[in-house]
Amino acid sequence: MSDQTVLLEVRDLSAGYGGGPVVAGISFTLERGEILSLVGESGCGKSTLLRAIMGTEPDLCLLSGSIRLEGTELAALPPRERLRFVARRCGMVFQSPGASFNPIRSYRSQFIETLKSRGKYDKKDFLPRAEAALLRLGLKEPRRVLDSCPYELSGGMNQRVALALALLLGQELLLADEPTSALDAAIQLQAAAELKSLGETAGIAQIVVTHNLALARYLGGRIGVMYAGRLVELAPAGDLLEEPRHPYTQALLEAIPRLDGTMPRPLAGQLPGEGPALPGCPFFPRCSRAIPACRETPCTLAPWKGEHLLACCRAGEETP
Ligand SMILES: Nc1ncnc2c1ncn2[C@@H]1O[C@H](COP(=O)(O)OP(=O)(O)OP(=O)(O)O)[C@@H](O)[C@H]1O
Ligand SMILES: [Mg+2]
Predict the structure, then answer these.
(1) How far is it, in rounded angstroms, from Cα 65 to Cα 188?
(2) I want to staple 299 with a disulfide (CB 3.0 to 4.6 A). Which of 74, 238, 294, 311 is the partner?
């Protein structure tokens, strides 16, 4: 992998909100145009990881590790400079799109303001480009949408507007936190197709947080599975879903309701609570394959087979 193709490099990142680390020991690289989907139970730190990269949340502190964006170490930049540097290259679609817009100002004025702040506003082009972006996301009356305020539109429409703005900004990296969760199935497919084409045709790299593994498979690229603030498995989407290796990933896949009527098997137990982390694998208390050594042996993500990475001390063994 040449430095030219690597857009984002995260190394051994730990971050938290003032107490202990909420995400810990996270390492991965993202190439230009590549899509990485992040999955994992609620509360495992997916949104926190995106926020740590974006750096917009004052309460969230980087405790250790490194985030390099286009070769620049973000942790070494003064806060204002870091924000400016990241905002030029990286956009974020939030879990609740209302959070990223003022609910009582028209989208038109908020789009213009955002484009101006990134040096990407051109008065002549604005309207046709904005309308085209909204149409691509299936918003059939783009002019009306532009003149609406977020509170006047449905959650799903707001989510699509947020994606349209990301399209318009054309940044190198898009961090999308459950970007399709408020959409019905048909619109979800359309939005997912747009996300995919952002990578394929516009070369925009993305980290997409989702609870929807079918969406992650459709998007292609790689899937990263998080558990208790750690990345426990990372692999090309097809490999991960066809040959999941981490007992947590296997349990997560078994817990999905199926259309063929097979009963899903709910994941037993709970995420570890606050307090000192176990020295070994955080999944140990819930793992059906755990051996005593798992409790003490630190597990870090390491190659299992080709691009398939795994953090499990039983990785080398055959699955029973
Ligand atoms: N602003 C905050 N201040 C303090 N703790 C927080 C804050 N935001 C999240 N947390 C805590 O950090 C942990 C990880 O939360 P996070 O929102 O990153 O999880 P998530 O994987 O995105 O979950 P979900 O799938 O429900 O969105 C949780 O224990 C949560 O309570
Ligand atoms: Mg979240």
Answers:
(1) 35
(2) 311
Q: Identify the pLDDT of residue 118.
A: 83
Could you count the other beta carbons within 10 Å of the beta carbon of residue 46? Answer: 25
Question: In this structure, which residue's CA is closest to atom 2 in ligand 1?
Answer: 17
Are the C-beta atoms of 299 and 227 separated by less than 8 Å? no
Q: Residues near 158 by Cβ (< 8 Å), separated by ≥ 6?
A: 97, 98, 101, 150, 182
Ligand 1 centre distance from Cα of residue 43 (Å): 5
CA angle 319, 303, 290 (to 5 degrees): 40
Query: What is the H or E stretch that residue 155 is in?
Result: helix 155-169
Q: Whose CA is nearest to atom 18 of ligand 1?
A: 45
Protein residues within 5 Å, CB atom, of ion ligand 2? 47
Count Cβ atoms below 10 Å from residue 98 Cβ, excluding itself.
16
Strand partners, 227: 230
Q: What is the pTM of this model?
A: 0.90
What burial letters (b/e) apply to 119-154, b meaning 16+ CB within 10 Å?
ebeeeeebeebbbebbebbbbeebeebbebbbeebe
For residue 269 the two structure tokens come to 């137990």
For 131-160, what is each residue's pLDDT tens digit? 999 998 888 999 999 999 999 988 778 878
Count other C-beta atoms under 10 Å from residue 47's C-beta.
20
Measured from the Cα of 18, ligand 1's closest atom is: 4
Is the Cβ atom of 274 under 6 angstroms away from ligand 1?
no
| Nearest in space to 52 (alpha carbons), one of 78, 14, 19, 81 | 14
The whole-chain average pLDDT of the chain stands at 88
250 CB neighbour count, 10 Å cutoff: 17
